[in-house]
């Protein structure tokens, strides 16, 4: 191709692109002055004339533009009908090249004459495409074949077209910044030239055929992920000629022939989708060009799909394949945490915190394919979704309307997933073209799960690194690790952390397993686990700190501190009633799960509702577990008595003095998602609840049958960031075992903070408690723009959409957490030395009695109750009171033994009814000659045959 032709080609491309662009821009202005009834007609006419302009240009230029047109013709799910209808002509065939040119190429490439090569060669091609045309032929040995012959000079045309396409994309990104197609065109420029070497295509064809077992006639069909498709066998190849086995089939756009054959179009497209799911998730090697022209339907029953043209293929690394599988499954499960982890693994980085929008976009990405006749409604939905997401970005980044259009929330986009996205879009377009509805979540899920299955099943027996590589602190820790391996091999553990202190020193700090069912990353010492009601013990510690610092009295009427609380017969409820679970509000707001589980994520609304609730029993008359209401009751008391926000006080009073920054939260901040463990259920334990009857000593919402129902929904709710970021002081603590154990180690010694813990890496307390995202100011500097639209502290610690978060952690001008202690007696952060020596959280010498509700505090508790003041009492087997702590549903726990100055914590993500935790505690206490808590001893010694008897006891979680 000469320079003159290249120049003319470029001018034509840009001229037509500008004409179409300005046509639409003019119509946008014109429609403002047109009657509403005429607008639809104006747009239809505009789409018709511009689609025809595009078609005429593509037919004249051919080359790469044909591929673009074929791609657009399949997007009936998002493009106007005029475009898909007219561009569909490109799926059939282009004007053929001369037979003379074809024969010359064949003879030059194969080194033989046509007569030597073929007994017969059809002069009329079966199809002519952008790069090559295909002829049917008979080889000299009588085999029926098809011969794919590359157009002469097409390489120069394709490379020039790529340059022009890239220039157009650059211009669009400048003129309409919200439409940035750079990642797509960059990947296309990298991959498209590979299609020009038919040796490459031959290798790809053979590899995909082997991966899908297309040529095997074994019992593969019985396998769960077997794919029933056909791929032609490769006979011979050179750079410009490819000879394949001939397969007699019908094109997908030949509706009459498909109907005559009785082809089930729904089943056909589903099988094609399964074939691509297998290629992507199982093989990590897939065809990147699944437009309708690259498929046939076999004329022989059962009319299997025939897959063609493997010139454009993509090879995925093992890590990227896993990340794509995790992304898919996270979208299917609505798991924001796993989704963000998957994005991080594939190299997709955001400039701001937009997890909800990321989930919505991903869900749209994998949405069910709809028939073409629903395309208009689908386009409307996508447009509304995009406008909604832009509004969120605008509010978070404080941008004006012009700036938000130019702001790209993505900081880094991995090119490897561009072709993956193109394949999904083409498959969706194929479904729309065939007028069938395809549920991708259902079809592709088994294949995505299979990617992670080998990692999920790699317990200790198969994975030598199942226990994270950290120092062994003691003989008992070595024995503990042996027990964990046994439990892991029995599939009772998914991921776990265990930490213990003795006499103020760490004697155990072990992490093992994986972060989630679909997250094979290892649990590390700094991983964060959802610990549910373990949070109550943390919340109780804050209340006692306020009492210790003179901000509150246990005998205070709550209504005197919190005036709104005094309504509906609650004026006599005191602080100690709440801590002792005797306020009578055990069922307050219990219907929130049925009404809307995510209501509990709205902190201010929940405080208002708990303040207007009515008690069921008189205060102090009955001890009934306040499994959810406890947190809002204590939270309201804490905020009213201190004049501070709950999270501010938590960080000031516990996190920073203990030096556990970044490893203990009640409501996580943005930026810690990569360290979160994902919850799952031990179904074998859950099934046992169906045999347990109700008990009068439990709230109605905490009966076994209700608990079984609750347990099945908890992972779905608490794996979402809506819940994880919420302030729910009864149930939403996120911490590492080493942070929780350090808290109880301090409580065991009356509040004295233990020496720093440095043995496990990363060091405890080394994480920033509130991670920072790149601010808009940084982004603008990267863009060489001088305007500043945001203060230096960036987007701040926004944790959810409700108002309480807006007043969350305070910050100074440097973005650090701002600390101000309201009491002269409190442990000011300024007083904390580098090694925490002589720092005490509490000054009351009888604080242990206060925690357990004994001694002078005994009259504030229910006689012989299982709770003290905020903590669950711990008794030895001879019924001696030895300590206190709190467990959570699923098995996580933290507790201490006062006499032995012993504290330990267990955090795990495979939720059960405590057998795993009990065995761990029993081993450690026995090895250290520390009294085993009675409830632990009972659970372990009765054995599995008496599990139901154990479950009939009240479940304190």
From TrEMBL:
<dbReference type="GO" id="GO:0005794">
    <property type="term" value="C:Golgi apparatus"/>
</dbReference>
<dbReference type="Pfam" id="PF00144">
    <property type="entry name" value="Beta-lactamase"/>
</dbReference>
<dbReference type="InterPro" id="IPR001466">
    <property type="entry name" value="Beta-lactam-related"/>
</dbReference>
<dbReference type="InterPro" id="IPR012338">
    <property type="entry name" value="Beta-lactam/transpept-like"/>
</dbReference>
<protein>
    <submittedName>
        <fullName>Uncharacterized protein</fullName>
    </submittedName>
</protein>
<feature type="domain" description="Beta-lactamase-related">
    <location>
        <begin position="481"/>
        <end position="763"/>
    </location>
</feature>
<feature type="compositionally biased region" description="Polar residues">
    <location>
        <begin position="797"/>
        <end position="807"/>
    </location>
</feature>
<dbReference type="InterPro" id="IPR051130">
    <property type="entry name" value="Mito_struct-func_regulator"/>
</dbReference>
<dbReference type="Pfam" id="PF03109">
    <property type="entry name" value="ABC1"/>
</dbReference>
<dbReference type="GO" id="GO:0005783">
    <property type="term" value="C:endoplasmic reticulum"/>
</dbReference>
<dbReference type="InterPro" id="IPR004147">
    <property type="entry name" value="ABC1_dom"/>
</dbReference>
<feature type="region of interest" description="Disordered">
    <location>
        <begin position="757"/>
        <end position="815"/>
    </location>
</feature>
<dbReference type="InterPro" id="IPR011009">
    <property type="entry name" value="Kinase-like_dom_sf"/>
</dbReference>
<feature type="domain" description="ABC1 atypical kinase-like">
    <location>
        <begin position="89"/>
        <end position="338"/>
    </location>
</feature>
């Amino acid at each position: 191709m000469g320079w003159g032709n290249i120049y003319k080609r470029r001018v034509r491309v840009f001229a037509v692109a500008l004409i179409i662009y300005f046509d639409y821009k003019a119509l946008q202005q014109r429609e403002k002055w047109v009657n509403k009834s005429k607008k639809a007609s104006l747009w239809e006419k505009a789409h018709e004339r511009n689609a025809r302009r595009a078609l005429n240009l593509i037919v004249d230029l051919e080359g790469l533009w044909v591929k673009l047109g074929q791609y657009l013709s399949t997007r009936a799910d998002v493009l106007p009908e005029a475009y898909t209808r007219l561009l569909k002509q490109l799926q059939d065939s282009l004007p053929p090249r001369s037979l003379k040119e074809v024969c010359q190429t064949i003879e030059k490439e194969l080194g033989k004459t046509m007569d030597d090569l073929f007994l017969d060669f059809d002069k009329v091609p079966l199809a002519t495409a952008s790069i090559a045309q295909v002829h049917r032929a008979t080889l000299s040995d009588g085999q029926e074949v098809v011969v794919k012959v590359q157009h002469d000079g097409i390489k120069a045309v394709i490379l020039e077209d790529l340059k022009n396409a890239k220039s157009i994309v650059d211009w669009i990104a400048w003129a309409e910044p919200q439409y940035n197609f750079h990642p797509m065109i960059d990947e296309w420029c990298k991959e498209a030239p590979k299609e020009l070497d038919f040796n490459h295509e031959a290798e790809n064809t053979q590899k995909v055929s082997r991966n899908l077992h297309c040529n095997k006639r074994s019992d593969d069909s019985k396998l769960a992920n077997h794919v029933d498709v056909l791929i032609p066998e490769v006979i011979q190849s050179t750079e410009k000629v490819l000879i394949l086995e001939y397969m007699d089939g019908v094109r997908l756009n030949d509706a009459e022939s498909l109907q005559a054959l009785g082809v089930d179009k729904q089943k056909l497209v589903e099988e094609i989708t399964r074939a691509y799911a297998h290629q992507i998730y199982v093989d990590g090697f897939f065809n990147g060009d699944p437009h309708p022209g690259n498929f046939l339907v076999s004329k022989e029953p059962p009319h299997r799909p025939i897959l063609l043209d493997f010139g454009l293929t993509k090879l995925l690394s093992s890590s990227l394949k896993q990340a794509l599988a995790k992304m898919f499954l996270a979208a299917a499960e609505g798991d924001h945490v796993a989704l963000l982890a998957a994005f991080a693994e594939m190299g997709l980085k955001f400039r701001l915190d937009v997890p909800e929008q990321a989930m919505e976009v991903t869900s749209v990405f994998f949405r069910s394919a709809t028939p073409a006749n629903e395309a208009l409604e689908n386009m409307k939905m996508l447009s509304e979704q995009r406008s909604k997401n832009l509004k969120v970005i605008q509010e978070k980044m404080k941008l004006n309307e012009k700036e938000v259009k130019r702001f790209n929330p993505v900081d880094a986009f991995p090119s490897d997933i561009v072709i993956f996205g193109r394949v999904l879009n083409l498959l969706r377009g194929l479904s729309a073209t065939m007028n069938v509805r395809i549920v991708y979540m259902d079809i592709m899920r088994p294949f995505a799960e299979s990617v992670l299955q080998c990692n999920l099943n790699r317990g200790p027996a198969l994975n030598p690194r199942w226990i994270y590589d950290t120092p062994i602190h003691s003989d008992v820790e070595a024995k503990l690790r042996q027990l964990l391996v046994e439990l892991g091999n029995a599939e009772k553990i998914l991921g776990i952390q265990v930490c213990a202190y003795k006499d103020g020193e760490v004697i155990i700090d072990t992490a093992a397993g994986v972060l989630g069912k679909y997250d094979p990353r290892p649990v590390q010492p700094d991983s964060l686990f959802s610990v549910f009601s373990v949070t109550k013990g943390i919340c109780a510690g804050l209340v006692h700190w306020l009492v210790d610092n003179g901000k509150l009295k246990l005998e205070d009427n709550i209504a005197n501190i919190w005036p709104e609380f005094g309504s509906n017969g609650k004026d006599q409820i005191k602080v100690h009633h709440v801590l002792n679970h005797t306020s009578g509000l055990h069922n307050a707001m219990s219907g929130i799960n049925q009404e809307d589980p995510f209501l509990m994520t709205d902190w201010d609304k929940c405080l208002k509702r708990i303040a207007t609730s009515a008690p069921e029993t008189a205060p102090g008359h009955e001890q009934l577990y306040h499994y959810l209401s406890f947190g809002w009751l204590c939270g309201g008391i804490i905020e009213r008595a201190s004049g501070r926000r709950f999270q501010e006080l938590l960080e000031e009073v516990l996190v920073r003095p203990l030096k556990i920054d970044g490893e203990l939260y009640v409501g996580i901040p943005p930026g810690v998602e990569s360290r979160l463990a994902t919850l799952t259920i031990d179904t074998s334990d859950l099934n046992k609840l169906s045999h347990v009857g109700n008990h009068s000593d439990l709230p109605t919402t905490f009966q076994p049958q209700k608990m079984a129902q609750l347990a099945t929904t908890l992972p779905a709710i608490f794996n979402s960031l809506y819940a994880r970021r919420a302030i729910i002081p009864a149930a939403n603590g996120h911490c590492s075992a080493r942070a929780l154990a350090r808290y109880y180690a301090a409580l065991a010694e009356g509040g004295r903070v233990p020496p720093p813990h440095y043995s496990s890496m990363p060091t405890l307390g080394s994480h920033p408690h509130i991670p920072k995202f790149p601010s808009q100011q940084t982004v603008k500097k990267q863009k060489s723009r001088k305007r500043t639209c945001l203060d230096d502290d960036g987007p701040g610690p926004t944790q959810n959409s409700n108002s309480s978060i807006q007043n969350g952690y305070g910050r100074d001008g440097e973005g650090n957490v701002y600390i101000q202690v309201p009491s002269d007696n409190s442990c000011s952060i300024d007083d904390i030395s580098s090694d925490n020596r002589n720092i005490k959280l509490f000054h009351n010498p009888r604080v242990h009695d206060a925690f357990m509700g004994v001694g002078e505090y005994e009259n504030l508790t229910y006689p012989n109750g299982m709770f003290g003041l905020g903590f669950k009492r711990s008794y030895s087997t001879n019924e001696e009171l030895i300590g206190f702590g709190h467990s959570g549903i699923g098995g996580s726990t933290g507790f201490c033994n006062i006499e032995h100055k012993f504290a330990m914590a267990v955090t795990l993500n495979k939720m059960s009814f405590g057998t795993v935790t009990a065995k761990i505690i029993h081993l450690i206490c026995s090895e250290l000659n520390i009294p085993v808590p009675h409830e632990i001893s009972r659970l372990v010694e009765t054995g599995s045959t008496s599990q139901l008897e154990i479950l009939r006891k009240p479940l304190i979680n």
